[in-house]
Amino acid sequence: MQLEMDNEENVTILAIESSCDETAASVVRNGRDVLSNIISSQIDLHTLYGGVVPEIASRKHIERINQVIAEALRSADKRLEEMDAVAVTYGPGLVGALLVGVSAAKAISFASGIPLIGVHHIEGHISANYIENKELEPPFVCLVVSGGHSHLVVVRDYGEYEILGRTRDDAAGEAFDKVARAIGLGYPGGPKIDKVSKEGNPEAIRFPRAKVEGSVYDFSFSGLKSAVLNYLNSCEMKGMEICQADVAASFQKAVVDVLVEHSMQAVEACGLRKFAIAGGVASNSALRSALQKACADKKIAFYHPSPVMCTDNAAMIGAAAYYEYCRGVRHGYDLNAVPNLKLGERA
Ligand code: KG4
Ligand code: ZN
């Protein structure tokens, strides 16, 4: 990584995201104005297999990426030469999927001479908050809950993160996906549990709210997942029919209660009155309304991207990239995909 301080005013960035099962490209100006946001989802393909098949994801990214990039430029009414940088997610994520985006961005940068910026996927999720909340600036506390991550983070400054807590086992989204599969809802689990829970009673079954010894901010969801599986097994053994909506709503309530409690503890302890959410699970309607209420009760300002900006997209990568650009971050052509890139770590 090369550092050269640069602080231009009108910075337009072409951003690319391919870390999992969405092929996405976006044009973003000054980190907050989205000129285009193209997302080509592979959900239908992976539904057949009950989850994301990495090899299929990589192949589909290869087939779609050029079209998606061209469409992002076209709908922003911009030419490539008008871009100040090309940004791309380089980790964490599926290695083959990441490599497609990274290779495309490097090729564009090499052919056009436009600077290359590698972006951390989770920094992207957090930065989605800047797009729809123009007034939001660090410091603030952020709950990041996606398919692969559950973190409580203090965003000290743009690009500066302090991790307060993380999951000890499954990520929140992973728990949603596994429980959805167990109760026969299939993939993608989170949105399906969200929907069916609206018909169920969240108090029907009392699932455990896990606490992690020694750390108030850490999460653990695998015990909850096992409790749901045990409940399903015991119903089967007793010949009892399960009510899918009640199980979904009760599971969702257990996750939401823990996320809300830990988040509010973190906000109070940090003495910051600003709280944001990020990642696919942040689009969950029960979580959003519970956090809205908890923040209103405690007079904490609550920031949340709209649901489509919570799940994977490239606009959030363009938002994060702008602040990297202003910090002077430029990557070389040796930029590689880093599947297990840690938050705060840089290539
Ligand atoms: O952030 P994301 O799109 O991709 C990753 O970076 O992982 O998050 C995907 C995860 C999946 O586990 C999905 O089931 C979950 O977010 N998710 C939801 C909802 N929408 C997506 N979980 C709960 N409720 C939702 N409405
Ligand atoms: Zn994501």
Total of DSSP H or I helical runs spanning 4+ residues = 11
Beta strands, count: 12
Ligands bound here? 5'-O-[(R)-(carboxyoxy)(hydroxy)phosphoryl]adenosine, zinc ion
- The run of helices and strands is EEEEHHEHEHEEEHHHHEHEHHE
CATH superfamily of the largest domain: ATPase, nucleotide binding domain
CATH architectural name of the largest domain: 2-Layer Sandwich
Number of domains: 2
Helix fraction? Answer: 40-55%
User: What top-tier CATH class of the largest domain fits best?
Assistant: Alpha Beta
**Average pLDDT:** 95
Q: Globular, elongated, flat, extended or rod-shaped: what is the shape? A: globular
| CATH domain fold name of the largest domain | Nucleotidyltransferase, domain 5
Adjacency order of strands in the biggest sheet? 4-3-2-5-6
Distance between the termini: 6 Å
> Low-confidence parts lasting 5 or more residues at pLDDT below 50?
1-7
